[in-house]
Design brief:
Blueprint: E1 20-21, H1 24-29, E2 46-52, E3 67-69, E4 89-90, E5 97-99, E6 105-107, E7 110-111, E8 117-119, E9 121-124, E10 136-144, E11 156-164, E12 179-184, E13 192-197, E14 212-216, E15 228-235, E16 242-247, E17 250-256, H2 262-269, E18 273-281, H3 284-287, E19 303-313, E20 329-330, E21 335-336, E22 342-344, E23 347-350, E24 358-363, E25 368-390, E26 398-404, E27 413-417, E28 422-447, E29 455-463
Parallel strand pairs: 1-14, 4-8, 20-25
Antiparallel strand pairs: 2-19, 3-9, 5-6, 6-19, 7-8, 9-18, 10-15, 10-19, 11-12, 11-18, 12-13, 13-14, 15-16, 16-17, 21-29, 22-25, 23-24, 24-29, 25-28, 25-29, 26-27, 26-28
């Protein structure tokens, strides 16, 4: 949860521009579990390295062998108001943080007669959660967001997230040490946000303080009305390394190592993480969605957490979210241009763009590249973007086009590009496209009124 200055914690105003993804299919398959369900048995190939099922007597605090309380309005010497502008004082009181006697943790924000807010924030004592070399890490919780909506929910900001271990005791090295927001919500909206924070603030390679994020409506019951399972899978078994975010097993956001430069990725991932649960009140993120706390905000609505578990899979281990097979791609991830299934007229070369790797170049009128099995899902993609560079001579330009299932089909969208300052001077260009759902073979085609090469392409992707 970050927001201002140089701090940690979630995000952001700018995420407002990210569209909600529909998950009707997942909703149809959702299974209702009791509030006190136990953590599931790890899948084959996975080992459980941390679990708290929050069993214990009603009205007692958390297991302090697993958790520590963060209290007050900041870390010692850290940014005020936790760096986000939130207004509550965090406490270790069982009024704010307690077990309910039915296998759940309740973090409850309260307001006193003078209008002062208190709430709770707990963090794992362990700071070493990371995948083994060539393996995977999964951090998961089953929880119900505060069951409050509308004006009564103004200012509510529940979160389940993780911070890079080097932050603990330093409190000035955010966002470089990394932050992984697995579940965030504000204002009682039926939406969950997932975000990775990294790099430098403001701006930088990770667009801080917004970060690299996405949001989606909860499948089945709304986020507030029912329990959902929120998870993050950090996968070092694939190249590029990937961090995937899920709600009820549906992958709705992925960040890969090649989206930022190698140093930024290493600074954010070459260490362990600790896990945090909290309910903030007010701050930059709620403010971005219509305002924060006011007299209509109702205290006393808890975030209810059934369990938190952390799993690891050794190199080559299995899991529920393995890399897609060849010929199956996530439209909303980053599709590397050189990963084509077929092409005509292209040349592959080493790029100096952020993240390194290769691009496809020598692209001119009539050239094309094919990417098979691109999955768009049931909520229509309406945007396309590509990372391009051009050293074309003056007066030379052309179109980068997207066609589906046939390279002679009418383009669903395109953008024009001319000289960007050089063949390795990169810029990301967005374009609107006609609504696309389902799974398609995607052709990237290149059209120009001149015969000369006019563009290089590093990667492409789609959005809502």
């Amino acid at each position: 949860m970050s927001a201002t200055s140089g701090i940690p914690r979630r995000r952001r105003a700018l995420v407002a521009v990210l569209s909600t993804l529909g998950l009707a299919a997942a909703a149809a398959a959702a299974v209702t579990l009791p509030a006190s369900a136990s953590a599931p048995t790890p899948p084959s190939g996975w080992t459980q390295v941390f679990l708290d099922d929050f069993t214990g007597a009603a009205g007692t605090g958390v297991n302090t062998s697993n958790w520590q309380y963060s209290t007050g309005t900041s870390y010692p010497g850290g940014p005020a108001n936790w760096g986000t502008g939130e207004v509550e004082t965090m406490t270790s009181s069982t009024n704010n943080v307690s077990l309910d006697g039915n296998g759940n943790l309740r973090i409850t924000p309260l307001r006193d007669a003078a209008g002062n807010w208190t709430s709770g924030r707990i963090e794992t004592k362990r700071t070493d959660f990371q995948p083994p070399a060539g393996g995977k890490l999964k951090v998961e919780a089953r929880l119900q967001m505060p069951n409050v909506t509308g004006t009564a929910a103004e200012g509510y900001w529940p979160a389940f997230w993780a911070l890079g271990g080097p932050y603990r005791g330093n409190y000035q090295n955010w966002p470089g040490v990394g932050e992984l927001d697995i579940m965030e919500n504000v204002q009682g909206l039926n939406k969950v946000w997932a975000t990775m924070h990294c790099g430098s603030n403001p701006g930088g390679p990770c667009n801080e303080t917004t970060g690299i994020g996405n949001s989606v409506a909860c499948p089945g019951a709304t986020c507030q009305a029912g329990f959902h399972t929120y998870s993050m899978e950090w996968d070092r078994s694939v190249t590029p390394e990937a961090i995937r975010f899920y709600v009820d097993g549906v992958n709705y956001h992925t960040v890969t190592a090649n989206q930022v430069d190698a140093t930024t990725w290493a600074n954010a991932t070459n260490h362990g993480y600790f896990v945090i649960l909290n309910v903030a009140m007010g701050g930059a993120f709620p403010d971005a969605f219509g305002g924060g706390l006011d007299g209509a905000t109702e205290p006393g609505h808890p975030m209810v957490v059934d369990y938190v578990q952390v799993l690891q899979a050794a190199g080559g281990g299995g899991g529920t979210a393995t890399p897609p097979p060849s010929g199956s791609r996530d439209a909303y991830g980053t599709i590397q241009a050189e990963s084509y299934d077929s092409q005509s007229g292209t040349a592959t070369e080493t790029t100096t763009d952020t993240g390194g790797g290769q691009d496809i170049g020598s692209l001119a009128n009539g050239d094309w590249a094919l990417y098979k099995g691109v999955t768009f899902g049931s909520t229509a993609a309406t945007q396309f973007r590509a990372r391009v560079a051009s050293g074309a001579a003056g007066g030379v330009s052309g179109l980068v086009e997207v066609r589906l299932d046939s390279r002679t089909a009418t383009p669903v969208g395109s953008f024009s590009v001319a000289n960007t300052g050089g063949w390795q001077t990169w810029k990301t260009i967005p374009a609107n496209i006609s609504s696309v759902t389902g799974t398609h073979d995607v052709y990237l085609t290149f059209t120009s009124g001149q015969p000369a090469d006019f563009v290089n392409v590093n990667w492409l992707g789609f959005g809502h």
